Amino acid sequence: MAPIRIGIIVALLNSSVEAAKKSIQHFNLPPETKAYGDPQALADDGDVDLVVVNTRVDVHHQTALPSAKAGKNVYVEWPLAQDAQHVEELVQAARQGGGRTLVGLQGRVAPPVEKLRDLIQSGRIGKVLNSEVVAAGGLNDRERAPQSLKYFLQRSVGGNVYTIGFGHLFDQIQYVLGDFTNIESHLQIQRPEVKIFDPASKNVVETIQSDVPDLIYAIANLPTSESTQAGASALLRFRRGQTFKGDPALVWTIQGTNGEIRLTAKDGTTLHASAYSGPVTIQVYDFATDTVEDVSWEWADWQEELPILARSVGEVYERFASGNGSVLASFDEAGVRHHQLNKLLDAFDHQ
């Protein structure tokens, strides 16, 4: 079906009014688009129904807070904010303001992820016993990063290999299998020195010390349900950079009492975004028949017309606009994910 037109851009907020005006011109927005340089002024604008925050993570809080307090509908990209304190302030402001909230954990509505969830809930492999995820990514290189992604190696910014690279996948796994309990982890920084290069010349311009874990092991219990057996568990391994040469970037298996599911993404772990330059496949191994079946998934026709990076985000907007947003992440749900991730980091800091 054709996508729903959910609205028009009526205002643009930037670091200053002048910067906002330049952005309006750059993106060829209508000349009547309002230019703002102050988040409070945007929050006070009665013509704005939905505020979309897609800045760097360390600016999310100051950008979104006035609108959340004002009761506006607010969509913030993941991560919600740069640290636990700022996350909690946004969660509380949204509760008090009463507006609808969204956080960009759009991987939940990526077709392969939804297909996995459907297979589990339909009982295709019986009751889930365990799941294992082996992934490598976060950055394209284990030893280098472009200047534009230097902040991916800095915990203080809040958007990094751990919170973004691992964090998106961490949410998708729990969307499919249920929220983890009794999480234990082992995090390390095995390659602290990272070369920062100029993408134009490819020359290294500096070497920095990363304070972001680049190797993550986690094990947890899965919640007992109609589709998951008591005592079921999950094991995750995520490391920064490339895989063993020729191996897929992501292999996710889910074993049940009657069969096993395997998702393989050759070129990336980012099922919410850019993992589709290579094949993303799903297979089901039926124990009774000893056969393996390829399970297809597909984008909607209207999504095929969009760039890959926009397809799952577009689905988030569609569901929000149509009122079919029960699976979308709110500020409250994002707060739960942040709490889980912060707990693992706290253990790492005190090990």
UniProtKB/TrEMBL annotation:
It comes from the Eukaryota. GO terms for molecular function: nucleotide binding. Residues 9-104 form the Gfo/Idh/MocA-like oxidoreductase N-terminal domain. InterPro entries: Gal80p-like_C, Gfo/Idh/MocA-like_OxRdtase_N, Gfo/Idh/MocA_oxidoreduct, NAD(P)-bd_dom_sf. Residues 111-264 form the Gal80p-like C-terminal domain. Residues 1-19 form the signal peptide. Keywords: Signal. This is Gfo/Idh/MocA-like oxidoreductase N-terminal domain-containing protein.
